[in-house]
Write a structure and sequence with these properties.
180 residues, 8 helices
């Protein structure tokens, strides 16, 4: 009855404060395109759920403890794939393929990628985002070193989003590191 992927891993425990969207609520969405996109995402992607309320005004997050991606059902349709899902997939890469994630992290730090980002006026994390993430992670009890690791994960996830949603950057990454 919940707006959750058709295929999910068995035994996943969700936080009690997650307010899942129901399938009935999805069917009541007036925007047919959005409704179809949500149903398609739930059918084709593993371990995704739509929720009615997100913490800290986020559009989505990936919970490392269960590998589930939670997306805000109320976000604009244009953000569902182009911004939020692509970013959360970056977090999932770390969880499911740590080696590829480390390569991507190394690539993000490379001088060629840093120059390309600067030339394109792309800042992976703004100071406001760093402050918001730091505050959130501190509230969750993370140490300073854990916060730095988590910020690095956010940077790489944001970069992965940029790569998979832009054909030009996707080709550049493939040329620099085809094994990724």
């Amino acid at each position: 009855n919940l707006a959750m992927s058709k295929d999910t891993d068995f035994g996943i425990i969700h936080d009690e404060n997650v307010q899942f969207t129901t399938k009935q609520e999805v069917e009541q969405i007036k925007d047919e395109g959005k409704k179809n996109l949500i149903n398609d995402m739930l059918k084709k992607n593993r371990n995704i759920a739509f929720v009615n309320k997100m913490p800290s005004n986020m559009n989505g997050f990936m919970k490392a403890s269960n590998g589930f991606i939670y997306l805000d059902v109320n976000m604009p349709t244009s953000q569902m794939i182009a911004k939020t899902l692509a970013h959360e997939i970056g977090h999932k890469v770390k969880l499911t393929n740590g080696k590829a994630f480390k390569k991507m992290a190394t690539l993000v730090k490379s001088s060629e990628i840093q120059k390309a980002l600067k030339d394109a006026n792309i800042e992976l994390l703004t100071q406001d985002e760093i402050d918001a993430y730091t505050k959130e992670y501190k509230e969750q009890g993370a140490s300073d070193s854990q916060i730095q690791e988590l910020l690095e994960e956010e940077r790489v996830s944001k970069y992965i989003k940029k790569v998979i949603t832009n054909e030009k950057t996707l080709k550049k990454v493939f040329n620099l590191s085809p094994e990724i």
